[in-house]
Amino acid sequence: MELKAIRGFSDILPPATSRWRLLEECARKILEGYGFSEIRVPILEKAELFARSIGEETDIVEKEMYTFEDRNGDCITMRPEATASVVRAYIEHKLYAADPVVKLFSIGPMFRHERPQKGRHRQFHQINVEVFGISHSMIDAEVMAIVMDYLSLVGAGGCQLQINSLGCPRCRLPYKEGLWTFLNKHLSQLCEDCRRRMERNPLRVFDCKVPGCQEIITEAPLISDYLCPPCAEHFAAVRGYLETLEIAYEVNPRMVRGLDYYTKTAFEVVAGGLGAQNAVAAGGRYDHLVAALGGPDIPGIGFAIGMERLLLILPDKPFSPGPSLFIAALGEGPQREALGLSHKLNRARVRTMIDYEGRSLKAQMRRADKFGARYVLIIGEDEQRAGQAILRDMEEKKQEEIPLPSIFEEIVRRMGEGSP
Ligand code: HAM
After folding, report:
1. Are 58 and 49 contacting, i.e. CB atoms less than 8 angstroms apart?
2. How many CB atoms lie within 10 A of CB 312?
3. Could you report the per-residue pLDDT of 330-353, keeping only the tens digit for each?
4. Ligand 1 centroid vs 366 CA: distance in angstroms?
5. Which of 81, 108, 282, 328 shows the greatest Cβ crowding within 10 Å of its Cβ?
6. Which tens digit of pLDDT belongs to each residue from 187-201?
7. Shortest-distance atom of ligand 1 to CA 126
8. Would you give the distance in Å from CA 273 to the centre of its chain?
């Protein structure tokens, strides 16, 4: 039987890996600039963590988690998202002890057993960002500014920010009742899943993909009509700060997000050209999650960027890792020289390749071309005896002789990090 990767799980091959790394490095740089520190949390957690945070009635927990019993009989889940784990770590290690304000980011794979399609995978990667300890609406706007800043820096500036307020438990209760009453009037038109959900958490009916249910939902009451005064004020303030930061946004009153822990501000960043899976990034405030998982009463807000989706919308520019060198060595002595030199150059971050097979100069030049080498260093036995090598600039189509003792410095000067 042919061995292949599991459906929904992809290999990331070169040269795409360079683009991935670039996105990750860029995220680290930007986030560290905004005062975030990196946290790395495990891929496996107790299943209970996600049921208690994301919510029992959500699609993620109900249908999509990779959950299994391990060899000790413990019920384990491969993390479907990072927020729950980061909150658990924040509580477990009392990261709030010195100061509740903590800004953390993490980058890594997540797992959801969804139906794979464009922009939807079973293993996918997120850049995940969380801020703890700030309830002021300024941070909501700032967090959204960070997402938009990052996206435009990596070349995805055309995305649209959509925001909504999901209220707090105080305003959510009458809203849920209003929604239930509305849904109850349309009971016969709802799918079986929705009928079950509406009894336990009517908000989850918004996640339904069944066209009949979607049609009914467009008429459903909106949370914005039920916001309590503090939540309404908070939302108005967030919008004001977004305007101060000159971040364009649209209010989407029907966005409820697919995870239960959100309160107040929720947002999604959508992009054209992604089809149905159009959210490149999403997040929101979760003021009661830390307490719900057994920690102190500390608010939080965050977001995650889906890296596969981000790569889908980025212009397909070929990644340029910088100039490279091929050393064409002819004969035993020159090959030894080439091996030592390429090792030294690679350590100095000059991308260098050599030939191992003792091929003809013509064949080696062909390999250099395939490697996309900007320079080729030719060392033959005659050159070596004369203490010289020939450096050919493939772009300028020029060549010059360089004394072997100064060859390393010469090449680093032309091609090393920081050279033009
Ligand atoms: P989420 O909306 O479930 O939120 O996922 C965030 C992003 O991850 C989505 O907008 C999308 O770009 C990407 N994503 C989700 N599922 C898939 C999939 N199956 N295939 C490819 N990409 C996917 C969260 O995960 C929250 N933890 C975000 C957050 C952080 N909220 C507060 N802090």
Report:
1. no
2. 18
3. 999 999 999 999 999 988 888 899
4. 45
5. 328
6. 999 999 999 988 889
7. 8
8. 18
